[in-house]
Write a structure and sequence with these properties.
alpha/beta; 6-stranded parallel beta sheet; 256 residues; elongated; disordered N terminus
Length: 256
């Protein structure tokens, strides 16, 4: 691994020798794509429900009040099981017909078609990747999604193969904020954790997990977009190892 002995004082005095980037809502507009795909899937599955309840399914599924996605990232359920549970909970909350296996398969098929075409890369991603390449800073991707979905997502926005290190929940069977997934990603980058900066939009997984693993972190809060569901983690603004940013251009400015 690269790096020298730890410097005392300001953690940002250390050089940035590696980046770990979250994917969803950091590089790609996953929330927007999910909303569009979920509304289409709800319309396909419950055509008589109407636009209000179609939108309600999308909002409820994304909010995930049952915590099914968090359970998945802890390795307590499968990716398919997590998705089924979220859809079942949203259907029940909106008083829609229950999802048997056939109806759920139709829901998932309609979702996948729209989700694939709705992928959008944020405009500040390519400049950051170019800056990192020009300055010799290795970049890895660390996501709480499964590997198959991640491959499809990266392919849709033209990022396949762009970052050789891609760590998903399938890599170790768990996801962020588990510190060992950050440590594993740093090892694949070949850079000690203290010299790596994690970039993500979700404080409870990206930022808290990165700090527990010894990385510095930049919390991305894009202007005009909804706050992440766990944006209220108050210690983010007082932790000297965390910086709040509004664009990935701020990350490029940290590179040596």
């Amino acid at each position: 691994m690269t790096g020298t002995s730890r410097a005392p004082g300001d953690p940002w005095a250390l050089p940035v020798q590696g980046l770990l980037l979250d994917i969803d809502d950091t590089l790609v507009d996953t929330r927007g794509a999910m909303g569009e795909a979920l509304r289409a899937a709800a319309e396909h599955t419950w055509p008589a429900a109407g636009p209000t309840r179609w939108a309600g399914v999308a909002d409820r599924y994304y909010a995930d009040p049952g915590g099914f996605f968090d359970a998945y990232t802890r390795g307590e359920t499968t990716f398919a099981g997590m998705r089924r549970s979220r859809a079942d909970e949203a259907a029940a909350a909106l008083a829609l017909a229950p999802l048997d296996d056939e109806r759920f398969a139709a829901f998932e098929a309609a979702y996948r078609v729209v989700f694939a075409r709705a992928q959008r890369l944020f405009g500040d991603v390519e400049p950051l990747l170019r800056a990192a390449e020009q300055r010799g800073v290795p970049v890895g991707l660390l996501t709480n999604s499964g590997s198959a979905v991640t491959d499809d997502k990266l392919g849709a926005v033209g990022l396949t193969g762009r970052c050789p290190v891609v760590v998903t929940t399938d890599t170790l069977g768990v996801g962020k904020p588990e510190p060992r997934v950050f440590a594993h990603a740093c090892a694949l980058l070949g850079v000690e954790a203290q010299y790596v900066v994690c970039v993500g939009d979700t404080i409870g997984t990206d930022i808290r997990g990165a700090r527990r693993a010894g990385l510095r972190a930049t919390w991305l809060q894009r202007p005009g977009l909804p706050e992440p569901r766990d944006a209220g983690w108050g210690t983010a603004v007082t932790d000297p190892g965390v910086r709040i940013i509004g664009t990935l251009d701020d990350v490029a400015a940290l590179l040596p």
